[in-house]
């Protein structure tokens, strides 16, 4: 009975993939123009709309840490390093702090890695505090706003909450000294203590050159229906199960491991990037955090992202029409993924694929070296420019203080 059911769906699917292939080949489709809720903002040029002052810090806050472990140049948190490099040579940079709209403090808080290459965030709050102490005593600008015209790149799992476990991250909350600053972070989830209003959600870093090297001809048929590679359980950190990915990844595995429509596994093949270009749908379930580099990979490789992460706030959501390009599945509906995905009409799939083919959307997901117009660096600047001019309320009266330098966990107060 079960066999026949799957056999039937399999045939349906084969027909379906074939049909889409045929339609795709039948026309030389122009890419559709993207209209985000803020208009065609992906193509905005931030140059001339803002000036950024880059604080010069001792190299122990940035370059030295990188020298110690160059793996942070390629991991998914590398945006903090590339953003720094980009700003140093960006036309929006000003050497005159008096004319700056925004102040940037280059601190690499995710570059202290375990032997396995995972960031150890425990010292990050102390490091950040130390950097803020330094800029606030050496320059007058921090004290004028207590950070409200400063932005920080905090790409860790739960941003400036600095912990990879959600419960701990929530317990810690955003580092008190960053309460007024604008945070540029990968983490985004609505109504979450680790995402404050006015933050800019960015894509995680995925290596542009490596991805480019794995491109296959655009017309290659998409013969895989659903694709996923990654963990379903994290036995080491979540032995009881259910906590990791709030059980959503486990549910994907338990329900669909034997389903021929689902090409899912924990193996990470060398053809991973090619496989995504041969797939119609790519699963992007939450892990420890709601986000993962799969989002970027799916967009770059034209595979429709199936986002399973309730309340996620996606990168540059004011510019990228995520609802139009992706499919959103509630965590509690994972068991119905097969019916949800097979009942999407082919014309809807084709439209999503056409939108995904738009080069400006792919560009917005990447941090290339050197930078290119419209890339993620430029989208961050666009986001900062859209927050200007600053409200007058951000400027404090002389000697007025808002932040509490001794708030937060006692361990964070130790010198770095
Ligand atoms: C900013 O305020 C702090 C704390 O009130 C003070 O110690 C510091 O000297 C001030 N910075 C400057 C540049 O005046
Ligand atoms: C600052 O935070 C500490 C620790 O939570 C608290 O004891 C203190 O009363 C706070 N200071 C002010 C002025 O609110």
TrEMBL record:
The keyword Signal applies. It is found in: Golgi apparatus membrane. Keywords: Glycosyltransferase, Golgi apparatus, Signal, Signal-anchor, Transferase, Transmembrane. GO terms for biological process: glucuronoxylan biosynthetic process; plant-type secondary cell wall biogenesis. Its main location: Golgi. Belongs to the glycosyltransferase 47 family. This is Exostosin GT47 domain-containing protein.
């Amino acid at each position: 009975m079960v066999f026949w059911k799957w056999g039937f769906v399999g045939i349906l699917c084969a027909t379906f993939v074939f049909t889409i292939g045929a339609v795709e080949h039948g026309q030389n489709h122009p890419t559709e123009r993207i209209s985000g809720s803020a208009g065609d903002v992906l193509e905005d040029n931030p140059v001339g709309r803002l000036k950024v002052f880059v604080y010069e810090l001792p190299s122990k806050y940035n370059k030295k840490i990188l020298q110690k472990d160059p793996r942070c140049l390629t991991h998914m948190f590398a945006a903090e390093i590339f953003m720094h490099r980009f700003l140093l040579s960006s036309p929006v940079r000003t050497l005159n702090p008096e004319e700056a709209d925004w102040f940037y403090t280059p601190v690499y808080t995710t570059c202290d890695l375990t032997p396995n290459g995972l960031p150890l965030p425990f010292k990050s709050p102390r490091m950040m505090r130390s950097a803020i102490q330094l800029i606030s005593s050496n320059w007058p600008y921090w004290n004028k706003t207590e950070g409200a015209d400063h932005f920080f790149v905090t790409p860790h799992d739960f941003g400036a909450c600095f912990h990879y476990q959600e419960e701990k991250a929530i317990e810690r909350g955003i580092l008190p000294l960053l309460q007024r600053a604008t945070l540029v972070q990968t983490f985004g989830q609505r109504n979450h203590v680790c995402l404050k209003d006015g933050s800019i959600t960015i894509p995680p870093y995925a290596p542009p050159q490596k991805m480019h090297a794995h491109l296959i001809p655009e017309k290659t048929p998409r013969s895989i229906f659903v694709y996923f590679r990654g963990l379903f359980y994290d036995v080491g950190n979540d032995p009881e199960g259910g906590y990791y990915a709030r059980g959503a990844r486990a549910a994907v595995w338990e329900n669909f491991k034997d389903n021929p429509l689902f090409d899912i596994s924990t193996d990470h093949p060398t053809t991973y990037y090619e496989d995504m270009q041969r797939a119609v749908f790519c699963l992007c379930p939450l892990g420890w955090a709601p986000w993962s580099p799969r989002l970027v990979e799916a967009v770059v490789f034209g595979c429709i992202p199936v986002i399973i992460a309730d309340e996620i706030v996606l990168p540059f959501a004011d510019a990228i029409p995520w609802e139009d390009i992706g499919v959103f599945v509630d965590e509690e509906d994972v068991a119905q993924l097969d019916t949800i995905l097979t009942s999407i009409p082919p014309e809807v799939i084709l439209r999503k694929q056409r939108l995904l083919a738009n080069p400006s959307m792919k560009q917005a997901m990447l941090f290339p070296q050197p930078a290119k117009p419209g890339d993620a660096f430029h989208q961050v600047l666009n986001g900062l420019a859209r927050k200007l001019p600053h409200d007058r309320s951000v400027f404090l009266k002389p000697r007025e203080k808002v932040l509490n330098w001794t708030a937060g966990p006692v361990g964070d107060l130790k010198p770095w």
